[in-house]
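Pasting two entries for a bug report.
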Amino acid sequence: MQTVIRRQVLATAVAVACGATAMGWLPAAQAATPKDMLVMAGTLDEFSTLDPAEVYELVPMEYLANTYDRLIRANLAKPGEFDGDMAESWSVSEDGKTFTFKIRGGQKFHSGNPVTAEDVAWSLQRTPLLGKGAAVVLAGIGLTKDNALQNVKLVDANTVSVTTDRKLAPTFVLSILGSWPASIVDKKLLTEKAQGNDFGNGWLKTNEAGSGIFKLNKWVANQTLTLDRYDGHRSPAAMKRVVLRHVPEASGRRLLLEKGDVDIARELSPDDMVALEKTGKIKLQPVPQAVVYYMGMNMKNATLAKPEVREAMRYAVDYDGIQKNIVKTLYNVHQTFLPPNMLGAWKNNPYKQDIAKAKELLAKTAEGCSDYAVSMQDCTSSPADASTPLEEGAEHLRVPGSLPPIGAVAGVSIWRSCHL
């Protein structure tokens, strides 16, 4: 199902005030919000910037999907297929390396400036030239700071071409060009706002320069994010306004939903879901989400750099226990990089908890089964109870310690500083 926040992939399961229709979310009769306004309770602490070239976190990606257009969009119902967004059509050269896009005419940014092929080319060049976190995504098709100006070309007033560094699967290239780092930004506006050679990054950290179905009304860090419908869009949204409220505790989100103060509550626990459904006033709507919770291991750590240690940690985790007793129906065990239902996703789960196997692997290292010193931190919004089986698995391998929750803000800071 596609929600009113179009093209956005919501959490694995959300609780919705009764009255939801097949085409979008509508608040219950007792809800305090107007019928053309959607209020959602979730967490916003991942936000540290609003610049598409800098964002690398889930909820900010959802924001970008609704405030910016892209060349194309992946067809979520048909993996491997794509729909034109700002591109009316596209073709691939015989050598499979150059992708040429015809740009849709008559479109305008939220600023009122026309969307041109020049804006598209400049946007695709800007991300690698700026060199922020999202640049690594475009680097996957060979676009770098050194070659972006040569490999992204303005062919004519209505055409843009992108040349990859080698022949790649067209579906892969199109997936990259349909992702958030390829968001189309307003060149004229950002050039006016630029400070030195920052491509307008300083201003765009807290502002917006897109042409998507919603436009930014106001962002108050760790409080609210308000989006207004862009009536000038070729396919306007149903809702006039969408408000995301930062509510850190799941219990608080549940209470707001029960009182009718919000229309949707995200990231509730399995127990909350069951309790809400029993009231008969709340509808649960499962929505697939391309998210994988995982244990990241720092390769700069001498111990974790050893393949045997990392493999041992994989065998130390009680996957079945986490599934059965903690995340239940909200999440599924998935042990490969690509989320389920994505093109190229692998459904096999080769690992089961096997402490004997894990110890056997550790014995192959120079230290054998001696104690290892490894610090662990939970820097996600994943279910808190899931950290306990991870701690227990580590203890089996004589890797003592706890998995303290440090929150998304600190977690994002660590990732961005390349400490992990």
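Entry 2 (this is the one that rendered wrong in the viewer):
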Amino acid sequence: MSQLVVLRGIDEGKSYVFEENVTLGSTPESNLILTDRTLKEIQLGIFKKPEGYFLSRQKGSLPVFLNGALFQNNQPLQHEDILQIGLTLIQLQGNNQTQKRAILKNRYRLVRPLIAEVTGSYYEAQDQKIQRPILLYLASTALLSRFPQLQEKLIAYGQMYSKLNHDSLPALLDFGIDGTFLFFIYEFLGDVTLHSLLKSGHPLPTPQVLSCVKDLAFVLRFAQKHQLSHWNIHPNTILLHQGRTILLGLGLDRIWIETCADGYLKASWQNKISYLSPEQTRKGDVTALSDLFSLGVLFFEMLTGQKPFKSSDPYELIAQIQKNPYPPLSSLGIEVIPRLEKVLAKLLEKDHNFRYQNLRDLTNDLEVCSLIFTYREQFENSIFSRAINTFFFRWFVLPGMAFAILWGMWHAYLKTILEDL
């Protein structure tokens, strides 16, 4: 028995199970027909034949990717293959998938999946030696087998990352290879992703937004100092744990993108288009400044509950990112201080040369915004502020104070005239 698991998309988490001699599709010879609910013109069929599973296009001409490469008709499928249909990410899994990955190095036992990516997946796991939870990242075996040079680069990455120390980065505890699996073991910092908070479509409280964006700005400043960049910031790469904002995968996607073919780059980014910078969508010079645009998109989404650029058509979405200005916050009923709007505008500049060039300036601006908001909030909650808002104060005290000031000014004026006479 095999199953197709939707790793990301509208039907995220859904499984399609199919067995030999069982027909689930709309045609007799097809085991399963897949249709992307966002791009309905794409339709693929999964066929079971004696020699294995095969993928065949049923409808549509938009690009589809298999393990990062453009799909060819009647292409064979293997377990753990990753299929990208429009904006949906699907993996073919066998019934022995869980058993195969149950324990790594006779020590790390998988508990449950947390975050799925084209390049690999994050799991909650248990370190059986010291009996504590850990965060386990398993690199995609399909892509590792296709690009064998990745293994050496990822091991070197593990050696480099293990020396980093920052409050917004999870500590790397172990990494290595077990059979065909390349893994990284991080400290476990909960399972609350920014995605889980944003999927309701409601704005987050402004203090939480400022705290989160400030933490991310500081870790990107730290990354810039160490000549690192992310290139893949989106809500599923961010954890929120006990007041800390944790960034996952710093530097990982850059390795995949620089090593793998252009087809992989398109496939890995296609389901995250909303968070890409303009230069990432048109093969421009992708630098650490591209991360700032992604941060700006997250900033906007946390403040408003919606993305600044929206379309079910990926090509239309790319055109918006490249050309359209983001909607003003005031048009969405969101009121913020002018300085914060200036920070957002600078992060979302289309030309990376007009974004923050020195991240120290960004963190300083965010610190000022945070202080202004804190003092304003403290004033609004103060006894004096509450007194000002009472009926008696507004209609009796304030007019009385104004009358006293005007009377004093008039009295001083009359006194001056009389003295001159």
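Dev reply: Rendering is fixed now. As a check, the viewer should reflect this: The two ends are 109 Å apart (CA to CA).
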